[in-house]
Amino acid sequence: MGKSSLINALTNRKKLALVSKTPGKTKVLNLFLINKKWNILDLPGYGYAKISQENRYQWSKMIMDYFIMRKNLVNAFVLIDCNIPPQVIDLSFINFLGEKQIPFSIVFTKTDKSRKALIQNNIRLFKEQLQFHWEELPLFFYTSSEKKTGIDELMTYIEELNNSIQSSQRI
Question: In terms of CB atoms within 10 Å, which end of the chain has fewer, N or C?
């Protein structure tokens, strides 16, 4: 389970975002209004989907354009499956966000799916790869949609972001 199940866990609604076992089912930008106050955007995945090169290019362009043009974006959450070693495509996307000065955090997902030692090693390798390009690492979260691990911490952070926006708008 990936980003859709995380959206469902964050919102405590089992069927808000459709969950598929096949990567690449999300093909468009899906915007969810939460509590009539803030939005979660579900983007197409760019990694494991079995799609043509042309479709992959179109998805990539759509995602990049969204991030570049979206002026009121508060924070992007980059979801990383911690059961696999660092992927070049994930590192490139994170570096793109940094180059464009787009605020983001990294959410390691599926922390309950493999042996603890494997997960810790993959996370360590991921952070080591980031340190080649980053002086200061972004904020990290460690989550499991099934066990709800890390969901409260992630929601607290989202609430803090929303509160900071509301207080800055009052000024």
Answer: C
Pairing of strands 76-81, 104-109: parallel
66 three-class SS: helix
Domain total in the chain? 1
Here the tokens at position 22 are 């096949």
Model pLDDT for residues 83-107, shown as the tens digit of each residue: 999 999 899 999 999 999 999 999 9
Alpha carbon 50 to its chain centroid, in Å, reads: 20
What's the pLDDT at 1? 41
| CA 100 to the chain's CA centroid | 17
CA 57 vs CA 67, 75, 107: distances in Å: 15, 24, 24
**Domain containing 158 — which CATH number?**
3.40.50.300
Q: Which domain holds residue 88?
A: 3-170
